[in-house]
Amino acid sequence: MAGNCIGSTWRARLAGVILSLVCTAAWADAVTEQASQLLAARDARGAFALLSPHEPQRAGDPAFDFLLGVAALDAGQPTRAIFALERVLEARPDHAAARAVIARAYLAVGETDTSRREFTAARQAPLPPEATAGIDRYLDAISRIEASRTFQLRTFVEARVGRDSNVNSATGTAQIAIPALGGLVVTLDPQGTRRPDTFGSLAGGVNVRAPLRADLAFVGGVSATQVMNRREDRFDTGNLDGSAGLSWTRGRDTFGLALQANRFLLDGSRFRDATGLVGQWQHDYSATTQVTLFGQLARLSYPSQSIRDADRGVVGVGAAHAFRPAGLVAYGSLYAGREDERAGGVPHLGHSLAGARAGAQWSPGAAHTLFVDAGFEQRRHGGPEPFFLDTRRDEQYSLTAGLHYVPARDWRITPQVALTRNHSSITLFDFSRSVASVALRREF
């Protein structure tokens, strides 16, 4: 009956390895046999409902208590799991799998010190390498949780050089027809068409996390980036960013709410200011899977072109999953929103939007991480462009791929390539862009 043991649930929770230590047991009755089958089918609630009524009579039977503990934990009853697993360990102190499960239960109720102690004890038993790796990941998670409860100050500086095929994100077409002028073909100013150049950039920032209590923390940060083109310096850009907010954790859920501000500079002058509010809910289904809901409200202001001022709102959902022990993390998100113009009589300056993003990171070794990210965004404007007598519709595709290399602690080198293609119903806004760069980052 070992083939019916409960490894499937543990593949979802701890890479399916620790329960192999106990899957050689032969369950003696129909109740435990059926419960093990339900757990193998990942029906923890069904297994818990089956086993729970038998607890008064069966408590003290290590095989029964172990199944009850696993079912209770995966059914969202960590306290019940602790009681059952304590009985297992009282009868069999060398039961490494029970010790690992109770460590997870203590982690679920927030007792990180006890959880660390139990995981460390379980790790001392003879275990397969994959089981040891699974326990190490939980110990790493506990370290991150404990770090989140202490004041943290992180800073970084980064230098980057590269080649940009289109520093101004402009069309490559030199001549276009103007329908409002009877189809007259005009030649664009060369500065308004695609301009390639080499560039360098500098960036730096500070991030702070300050616990206010065990489950609540202040989070904030400031950063700045300056991009300098070698020849096309009129298209040099800068970004100043700041945020301040709160992060609240309750069990497997983390809620965040923050004020954000951004200033975008073009050729050293203010081009656009953005202020707003961003909120996020993250739920950790397991140590390897999480889902996120997010929303953002922002007010956009253009100091020298106030007619473009707008209010922007976006909502979306995302998910991420880590494939262990392959070292692969995959993620994706969907989002939609609107950017509404604040001025009257210019509906073409507002638009609705919808998009998707997906990517993956793979770490074949401790010092290397390969990454790829792909995105799509569709935009529909609210009215016809005055000179083109057509409503603008854009479909933008993006692809980024590269490598993070860590030659030493707190140092990172990142070569990458980023491609962008914007298909627009109006030629003036149709463009393609490719950027190849290498960045050197130092964290403190």
Describe the structure.
- This protein is of the alpha+beta class and 444 residues long.
- The chain has 2 domains: 2-148, Tetratricopeptide repeat domain (Serine Threonine Protein Phosphatase 5, Tetratricopeptide repeat, Alpha Horseshoe), CATH 1.25.40.10; 152-443, Outer membrane protein transport protein (OMPP1/FadL/TodX) (Porin, Beta Barrel).
- The protein is built from 9 helices and 16 strands.
- The protein has helices spanning 7-14, 30-40, 44-51, 55-58, 62-74, 78-91, 96-108, 112-123, 129-148; strands at 152-164, 175-178, 184-187, 197-213, 216-229, 237-250, 253-266, 269-284, 289-301, 310-323, 328-341, 351-365, 368-385, 390-405, 411-424, 431-443.
- The strands form 2 sheets. It has a 14-stranded antiparallel barrel with strand order 1-4-5-6-7-8-9-10-11-12-13-14-15-16. Strands 2-3 form a two-stranded antiparallel sheet.
- A hairpin with a 2-residue loop joins strand 4 (197-213) and strand 5 (216-229).
- Residues 1-28 have low confidence and may be disordered.
Brief sketch in words of this structure:
The chain is α+β, with helices and mostly antiparallel strands and 444 residues long. The chain has helices spanning 7-14, 30-40, 44-51, 55-58, 62-74, 78-91, 96-108, 112-123, 129-148; strands at residues 152-164, 175-178, 184-187, 197-213, 216-229, 237-250, 253-266, 269-284, 289-301, 310-323, 328-341, 351-365, 368-385, 390-405, 411-424, 431-443.
